Amino acid sequence: MTEQFNLPNQKDKFTINYEEALNPSQREAVTSLDGPMLVIAGAGSGKTRTLTYRVARLVEKGISPAKILLLTFTRKASSEMLNRAAKLLDSRCERVSGGTFHSFSNSMLRKHASILGFDNKYTILDRVDAESLVGMLRKELEPGSKHRSFPRKRTLANIFGRAVNKVIPIEDVIYNDYPHFQPYLEDILNLSVEYKKRKVIHKFFDYDDLLVYFHLLLKNHADIRDKISSSYKYIMVDEYQDTNQIQAGILYSLTSKNKNVMVVGDDSQSIYAFRGANFKNIIDFPRLFPETKIISLEENYRSVQPILDLTNVIIDRAAEKFSKKLFTRKTGGVKPVLANAQSENGQSMFVVDKIQDLNASGVPLNRIAVLFRAGFHSFDLELELARERLPFIKVGGFKFTESAHIKDVLAHLKVIANPHDRISWYRILLLLEKVGPKTAQNIYEAIDKEKSGYAGILTIELKSGISRRLSRLKQLFSNIDFGPLSVSEMGEIILHYYLPVLRDRYDDHPKRARDLEQLLTIMQRYNSLEQFLTDMTLEPPNTSMDGTFAETSPDNNRLVLSTIHSAKGLEWHTVFIIWALDGRFPSMHALNNEEDLEEELRLMYVAATRAQNNLFFTYPNNVYDRGSGMIFSMPSRFIDMIPDDILEKYYVD
DNA sequence: TCACGGAATATTTTT
DNA sequence: TATTCCGTGA
């Protein structure tokens, strides 16, 4: 009855050779299927591999794919894993239920919204929409908001969101994070109440609501909770360190009927605390699930030893660490480099130079990435890359779906799906000449009174002056109302209406028009308008489309520019981390707060652990900071004072 | 009531 | 530097 004796049998039973493909810890995580399990997966330790094989294993054992739930951080992550599992085994794996907490919550709420007293034809507000709504309310608020220092709509939305995600009162958020707004506490509280009310009136759910209301549904309706729970026999959660308290609560409820739940994460890679994520969820997990089996993956398959030596030093500087030391069997490799440039442009030139060298010596461009703290940090580099005709793709930062022209077009579709969507109506109406907030409000109220959905715009009575201005818009909606149209047919009609508006409003309309063509292509993949709008909000295309080289490059062999947040989970042959400058990374704003500083450190750790073979840090000298009036010239404290035998120093220019 | 211009303000990361 | 906000003239 030894293991070896059983091996031939096992091999006959499973088409996949798990013994060969996985190391002992991974294998254990993959093959022990029942009961709660916590997998602590160090950077590059084969976490994705483990999850992929586990999905395949479950399916191979005959578990129905629909009864398996894989919750991930992005939609892309789950579809990639399922695709890989399908390649290992067969296409059944693609039918596994997968998605983000937000998208899963959304699909459940669409089914069960009525139990909470909501209509399921709600609109999901993205960040910009939520801010617009807050902005409207802010204007309506009489006494408070006329003070100069009253918080902006964006700040207000942040405050509300933080309170929800951390499950603390708004008072605490103000007290801890925004003490300078304490004089306005009462107004802010009133605004938050009003915000909540308006969301209900206009059938809006913001990102947080999806989690909050789904959690509420599970908590208050045991029958539904048990039904959902028993429909998912096996649950896996990726990136557990970046879940927040509500998500942990949702997960707990989902296991009411069985405890076959595996969470995977790495406390050292928790980088979403700003959004309410709490890596302590990892520590709490075994307490929540008493029989938890804990497995650590510590063998690193990604990086060469010199890189690991450095990343171990970085994470050792964390105050709160659950010590684990990664090791690798990869031999050789060169020391990471810290390069000091005289200026920002010097930094860009250095990076471009090195990339050209590497590329000449056979490293493909798509195996190289440049990572940075914030989207705008790459502006200078982008110019330099364009000059050298190096094709690149930029990930993270501003989003395709957040640009004004895309939102304009989407607004026309959103009022069809949800005629109560006041934000979209305003957006549509304000595009018209001579229509401002006041007129928009009048028209909106008139449409709302008609109670005939978006078609209300066709029958409303208005002063003739306004009515004439509306005629083209009315024509648009009557065309749409004429018959059942596919999503892309609606898109085409709207585009026909909108393109003249676009030409009027933007100097760079040709470029924007191309984006809209792109949008039309995406629409063709959908036959449900709701689904299209949901995906545009919950799983928008991640890459910013503006790069001139983005579309023109024939193959996919492009250099990757990415924010560190968007680089999570990925790896490259060579990684450049630019702006490793104290004051920028960590940013000035994090210096006063121990927790923020720790998060910045982990962010640096995440960035550095993306590298397989080569790792470069760069920072420019004499950078003037407008905010503080200071001059930055020191390397990031996270990589400063590291001996030369671990981190080599260069001076360029 | 709208459009425009000047002044004030400001962090960044994403679902 | 870019956005947002407010006052002013039409």
Present the secondary structure layout.
Elements: H1 3-13, H2 18-21, H3 24-31, E1 37-41, H4 47-60, E2 68-72, H5 75-88, E3 97-100, H6 101-112, E4 123-125, H7 127-140, H8 153-166, H9 170-177, H10 185-201, E5 204-206, H11 207-220, H12 222-231, E6 234-237, H13 245-254, E7 261-265, H14 280-288, E8 293-297, E9 299-300, H15 305-316, E10 327-328, E11 337-341, H16 344-360, E12 368-372, H17 379-387, E13 392-395, H18 404-417, H19 422-430, H20 437-450, H21 456-459, H22 464-481, H23 487-505, H24 509-523, H25 529-538, H26 548-552, E14 559-563, E15 572-577, H27 594-608, E16 611-620, E17 623-624, E18 631-632, E19 648-651
Parallel strand pairs: 1-7, 1-8, 2-3, 2-6, 4-5, 6-7, 9-10, 11-16, 11-19, 12-14, 12-15, 13-14, 15-16
Antiparallel strand pairs: 17-18
Helix pairs in contact: 3-4, 4-5, 6-11, 7-8, 7-10, 8-9, 11-12, 11-13, 15-27, 16-17, 18-19, 18-23, 19-20, 22-23, 23-24
This protein binds a DNA duplex (15 and 10 nucleotides) through residues 73-74, 100-103, 126-127, 135, 146, 148-149, 152-154, 207-208, 210-211, 271-272, 274-275, 373-377, 396-397, 399, 433-439, 537-540, 563-566, 587-590, 603, 626-627.
